[in-house]
Specification:
Two copies of one chain form a homodimer.
Chain A (H helix, E strand, L loop, with lengths): L20 E2 L1 H19 L3 E4 L3 E3 H4 L15 E6 L2 E8 L4 H11 L7 E10 L11 E10 L4 H18 L6 E7 H11 L4 H11 L2 H13 L2 E3 L5 E3 L5 H11 L6 H12 L3 H19 L7 E3 L13 E12 L5 E12 L5 H4 L5 E7 H10 L11 E3 L7 H13 L4 E3 L7 H10 L4 E4 L2 H6 L1 E6 H9 L12 E5 L3 H12 L1
Parallel strand pairs in A: 2-6, 8-11, 15-16, 15-17
Antiparallel strand pairs in A: 3-5, 4-5, 6-7, 7-14, 8-12, 9-10, 12-13, 13-14, 17-18, 18-19
Chain lengths: 494, 494
Amino acid sequence: MAKEKKAPKPKAQTPKGFRDYFGTEVTERAEMLAQIAGVYHRYGFDALESSAVETVEALGKFLPDVDRPNEGVFAWQEDEDGDKGDWLALRYDLTAPLARVYAQHRNDLPLPYRRYAMGPVWRNEKPGPGRFRQFYQCDADTVGSGSVAADAEICAMLADTLEVVGIPRGDYIVRVNNRKVLNGVLEAMGLSNDDQRDAVLRTIDKFDKVGEAGVRELLGKGRLDASGAYIDGVGLSDAQAEPVIAFLTSKGETATQTIENLKAAVGESTIGAEGVAELEQIADLLAAGGYGPDRIVIDPSVVRGLGYYTGPVFEAELTFEILDEKGRKRQFGSVAGGGRYDDLVKRFTGQPVPATGVSIGVDRLLAALREKGRIGSKSTGPVVVTVMDRDRMGDYQAMVAELRGAGIRAEVYLGNPKNFGNQLKYADKRHSPVAVIEGGDEKANGVVQIKDLILGAKIAESASLEEWQDRPNQFEVPRGQLVSKVREILESYS
Amino acid sequence: MAKEKKAPKPKAQTPKGFRDYFGTEVTERAEMLAQIAGVYHRYGFDALESSAVETVEALGKFLPDVDRPNEGVFAWQEDEDGDKGDWLALRYDLTAPLARVYAQHRNDLPLPYRRYAMGPVWRNEKPGPGRFRQFYQCDADTVGSGSVAADAEICAMLADTLEVVGIPRGDYIVRVNNRKVLNGVLEAMGLSNDDQRDAVLRTIDKFDKVGEAGVRELLGKGRLDASGAYIDGVGLSDAQAEPVIAFLTSKGETATQTIENLKAAVGESTIGAEGVAELEQIADLLAAGGYGPDRIVIDPSVVRGLGYYTGPVFEAELTFEILDEKGRKRQFGSVAGGGRYDDLVKRFTGQPVPATGVSIGVDRLLAALREKGRIGSKSTGPVVVTVMDRDRMGDYQAMVAELRGAGIRAEVYLGNPKNFGNQLKYADKRHSPVAVIEGGDEKANGVVQIKDLILGAKIAESASLEEWQDRPNQFEVPRGQLVSKVREILESYS
């Protein structure tokens, strides 16, 4: 190792907006991703792992989030023998790399190409509470098919995925909308210019927050927001605003009714009619596959991503209630979204390539599973073999080797064994179910002490409870019964 | 999406030294990492996932590879509201982040802290054939224990890991050496200054390549290398060089014999005697755990990492032979290495914290498993439901939904269905075992055609073989038997 000058000590800190994940935070996510990969695989999707680093040129500057078009990436310039080379950057999502991969390898890939990808992405944004600059995404996309059957399949797969990871039917809903229908609505409104059109799109994006009345005000004269500030409106007449309102509130009791409402909202627009027909087909295909409106619905109030996607748009919401920071009940909300985007590959090849896909918010879905109690129970630590006699480390190593050989998680205490109390504190910190003790006397008698730490904790909590009275929390067994007795205890708690 | 100006098309290419991984390349690695995590977990190690990005300050500039101390990292400077902030960089290994994590969270972590980590690391080096700038590492380390039991445990875990992923006993060996023994040898040599000491260390590092005679020459007057260039020697006398040679060649028939040879090599050196005693203890502990010299041996010829580590050093080698690029037989070689390093955390806290660990070369181990035929068989693709009538997409969706519901990987063809030949070509490219066909006639008669593509390929390969004659590669079944018949075919090939 290089010699260090007497320099000030470096700060032991993650960079701002980054964090570390420990133990079950890591393994629970890995397990969930493996379950999701299983569903994706069953649907015929193949794994793809592109590198974290792309050229800025290939990445483009298209953050999918229309709210923050200027948010950046982490980028640096290559240094090639002293000369400056390409600009490189960390990927900000998994879609831009997919476009590059597809353009680069298209002659070797099947067409259509169904692929899934899971891994971290990076955003050079101002970090905030619970908002990190590295987070996981988990995407599935079909490149090269313009058929709405591809969109319907993604929706069905999303529903299956949620159930497989542990969100029961009834606790989620996949909603489907279509950008083409919105385009038809905009056409039907007879807007005078692109600025007005963009203003209407921005307003629609606020539907989630301000609701129907709010959107009405914002499309018209304007609105006093919660902070007391007055937000200027788009300045449309009530009649002009009507198709947008009709669109956003067109969800009926049945898909058929919703479709009828949408037909009315798009009026004579050809693109609008096309969008409505696509939604109708998606509903039919899903019904044919057995995915009814209890799982997937046509719902024009889905506005997230409408500015980004070019056709069908999907969003998965969890519908069970949780308490927010202020203790108020609210729905858990969105955990996945996606849609059709037909322009990404064209950047590279000049040829339009239809594509559709979905991205699951891994961290939000994990949070949801914790809410449902599906994951997050305190993990059981290893059996700890304590060290009573440091010269007999070989004996203790033999014990852990036997336990591990029997598939039992086990470790020997590797700290300073002088203070036995510290060894038991360590076992406690490790959430160990069992400690094993073999001092000189035990060794001489061919026995070991087994300490049931879970029972010990229960007895400590409620010393008078009868249920534990006839069960000792520490007992002696012949050395040869170490594995079977430990297993017995572990099984009694599993 | 932002509007694009007419700009030149971006190149669809990975940056130099980066690559994409497809399908089984991704899933086989994921599976192997899960198996390794299982062993690490059984040994009481907890998962840790730190972020890919660290401050350059926290990372330090300590690439573990002494050959390339100046090789760099990918780094950039934070931009904070226009001001320049911290320098950030992608981690170049998983050990430097562990030191930072341990220093940052030490009050919350158990002591000793056993952790494993797996994930990509990045090196800003000149890429070469088969040498990438992003690759996976898979580490396990114990922080906070100075006991050689911690080192022995890592060696045992490494042996178990190799067997669990599919390297049979006899096809690998874990070799153990100790830097302290080398220090003792250097002491015994009576070197005049640090420069000479460093020169000897560099020479020892070449033992793998030049062998005993080469090291003798390089420690003395010098040596003509393979390219014809003359390499100056360190200038030691034969007598002075002797302890190094004795050290490097001290492996005996048994551990006891090796230990005796080492005792002779270190002479009167205290640190040397300490190192030999540690090796002796490690051998004893491993023997107590049942890990004999068929799996783990004391072998002073292990020189890789000796310049970096401060105590025991380990290396796992695969001993079976493969053919190299030139068709010559050679041993597969090293797939993992590690050792004790007691200075990393001290950088942050000022307190020395003993640590020991191992890093598995994930890509090399995967290559080894491919050599052994343990992985890499062509994966079976999905059942492809073809589209004979594009207006009946709902019927086809229903079929794939049924197949998937039965756990069978299946997809409907989503390309342009006009040319049926293209659909079968697609199925071929996907390595599909079965294609399902339902035209108008079949629909009317309540049947489907099932095409056994594996059998079809076999018949095409060897048309005259009798074994296939009484088995049709395409047949008609009632629609209701779709799932059971497809399953029957899949099971006949599994």
